[in-house]
Amino acid sequence: MDVLRVLSVTMGRISTFRSYQIILLLAAAMAVVAFYYFGSEKQNFSSTTKRIKETQASHNTNRDDADLSLDIRSGQAESRRGSRDDLEEKPQRIKRFHALMMFTKVNKSLNLQNKFQVAMRSMAKHGRFLEDEVLVLHFVSDVGSQELGERMLHELLLDATFLYEVVFHNVDTLTEKLFPIVEAMQKHFSAGSGAYYSDAIFFLSVAMHRIMPAELKRIVQLDLDLKYRSNIRDLFQEFNHFSPEAVIGITREMQPVYRHTFWQYRKDNPKSHVGDPPPDGLPGFNSGVMLLNLDAMRRSTLYNQLLEPKRVTQFAEKFHFRGHLGDQDFFTMIGMEHGELFYPLACGWNRQLCTWWRDHGYGDVFQLYYQCDGPLHIYHGNCNSPIPDD
């Protein structure tokens, strides 16, 4: 009996001990629940993540290597957002890097579609941006090409590690705005004779500062036949090296195009360096890659004076100039006397591959223009030149 009594008392104590344990565990669980529901000020994962990102962004507000312009989307430009969902959680003062490409008649050209694929895939492959930065891709397009572009971009930028937005600008709307500004210069720098309304779009870079919203301060204009070998973000950093007078960053022409175009002026002025090869000559510019400081273009009295019809005609007559390459011809012509308006972008940012003039009368001097030393950041397959594989 004594043994049974001892056993009964022992079992009772154990039962009591377990009851205390259960009570303590329940109390602890209730305390945790109370903490999250009453002590956390209704925070959740999304709001906490947003607060962290805003804090990180505030630490970067002193960086001056990005365009802090606002979203420029308007009623005239149909826009699509191509970034990831978490772009919605970014702070309002997100940093945007703007790049623009002509995207007309692409739906009717398999060749242009192939070039577009090469450009976008290589841009996505090498592009790297910080988490509070967005690359805004502007496309000047017709309706048919826009529909195709929207379908293609989703796939081509699928592997992009950076946030991006896509904005389509209607080509007819921009042309209507441009034509009154550039009509006078078209007869000097367009194919054929006379000023054609549709040709105005090829002078977009010349007068972009007058037709784009004032909030858009800097933009990079890019040809479609490019292949990127470096981070495109690094290209935007070149804006930081502009002189106070410079409004446009651009590379030199890498063929003797303007040696040929200025032949009459060179004949009349044999001591001139107009059209000569680098490093001492003035070979002209290539517009395949351009950095447009729209703010500086708006402020520059000299640059805007050079857009006036009377000044354009004076320059064209002085240099006996007759071109067909649109904005590139205009920049080349005024650059012969006003080089201070241009920041000389390294040739590696627009490594032109066309060799047409080598086989058309200039083989003896071609290499003097074509040579490009230094890192190669962007290949330019101009005149349908094949672009090397990586």
UniProtKB/TrEMBL annotation:
One of its GO terms (biological process) is protein O-linked glycosylation via N-acetyl-galactosamine. Residues 48-89 are annotated as: Disordered. It holds the Pfam family Glyco_transf_8. Keywords: Membrane, Transmembrane, Transmembrane helix. GO terms for cellular component: endoplasmic reticulum membrane. The chain crosses the membrane at residues 20-39. Residues 72-135 form the FHA domain. Residues 51-66, 78-89 have a biased composition (Basic and acidic residues). GO terms for molecular function: xylosyl alpha-1,3-xylosyltransferase activity. PROSITE patterns: FHA_DOMAIN. This is Xyloside xylosyltransferase 1. It comes from Triplophysa rosa.
